[in-house]
Amino acid sequence: MSKLSNMLTNEQLKTVLFDVDGTLFDTLPSLAAVNNLVLKQAGLREVSTPLLRAALNEGLRAMFRKSIALQMAPVDDELASTLENEFLKQYMQDWLAAATLYPHLHETLSTLKSLGLKLGICTNRDRASTEYLLAQSRVAEFFELIVGLGDAPHPKPAVDPLLLALERMGGTTADALFVGDSSIDATCARLAHVRFAGHLGGYAVQSADLEPNVFVFSDYGTLANWIVGHQAATDGGGHS
Predict the structure, then answer these.
(1) Spatial separation of the C-alpha atoms in residues 139 and 147, rounded to whole Å
(2) Same-domain pairing of 103 and 202
(3) DSSP category for residue 141
(4) Cα separation of 171 and 183, whole Å?
(5) Is the domain of 51 the same as that of 93?
(6) Measured between alpha carbons, how far is 170 from 168 in angstroms, rounded to an integer?
(7) Predicted confidence pLDDT, tens digits, the chain (240 residues)
(8) What distances in angstroms separate CA 215 from CA 47, 200, 211, 220, one per listed residue?
(9) Range of the domain at 93
(10) 63 and 92 belong to one structural domain
């Protein structure tokens, strides 16, 4: 566990917020596939998946723009914009459903709800595709709200989306946990003074990207156990 400053780590949790890409869903393989399909169709060079990994944490458009920036020769702005829109169109039409939920996540969400916790989404992904992913994976019912790209003045790592989600859910920074998989998520949580749990199975370039944190995990079963243990250890006379 990383050392935390100015964070209350002994408060019971009431709200848990989750990132989407690399946290709830393994979306990179399908996104990289359609990304390279669009590039190939335009006669451009395909980009390896590892080079797109970190950029995805900033959102779908940011990932595609990274692939344009990595081309051997500059790409005309108008063509780049056209290809970006084509990438999003093909992804939404043909590839969105290819994303897979991380193992044991459904059971973990059920456990957290049984503890009386409020669950929400805080992502740099657009709302429409987020809603689709949650619905097709049958986990939408667990989440009370989604704060996605464009809902707050500035995206993560700015604190705006996380604080907006907490405000709408009636939570506070002292009783919340943010679960993410990148330095963008960790930075957002740190700046908002919200506890952070890092998913090692996501898209962080290195484990240090997930600091500071109160917990890191590779399997969702261990996150569920940690939260159950934390709630029990901080229970001052019953869950609120």
Answers:
(1) 16
(2) yes
(3) G
(4) 23
(5) yes
(6) 6
(7) 444 443 456 789 999 999 999 999 999 999 999 999 999 999 999 999 999 988 888 889 999 999 999 999 999 999 999 999 999 999 999 999 999 999 999 999 999 999 999 999 999 999 999 999 999 999 999 999 999 999 999 999 999 999 999 999 999 999 999 999 999 999 999 999 999 999 999 999 899 999 999 999 999 999 999 999 999 999 864 444
(8) 33, 10, 9, 12
(9) 28-98
(10) yes
In the block, residue with structure tokens 């619905």: 135
CA–CA separation, 18 vs 175, rounded Å? 15
Per-residue b or e along 97-126, where b marks 16 or more CB atoms closer than 10 Å to that residue's CB: eebebbeebeebbebbeebebbbbbbbbbb
* pTM of this structure: 0.90
- Cα 14 from Cα 116, distance rounded (Å): 8
Q: Are 54 and 206 in contact (CB under 8 A)?
A: no
142 and 160, same domain (yes or no): yes
State the Cα–Cα distance between residues 61 and 55, nearest whole angstrom: 9
Query: Cis peptide leading into 212, omega within 30 of 0?
Result: yes
For the beta carbon of residue 48, count every other beta carbon within 10 angstroms.
11
- Residues near 56 by beta carbon (within 8 Å), at least 6 away in sequence: 21, 22, 27, 28, 31, 62, 63, 203
**Residue closest to 64 by CA, chosen among 47, 77, 40:** 47
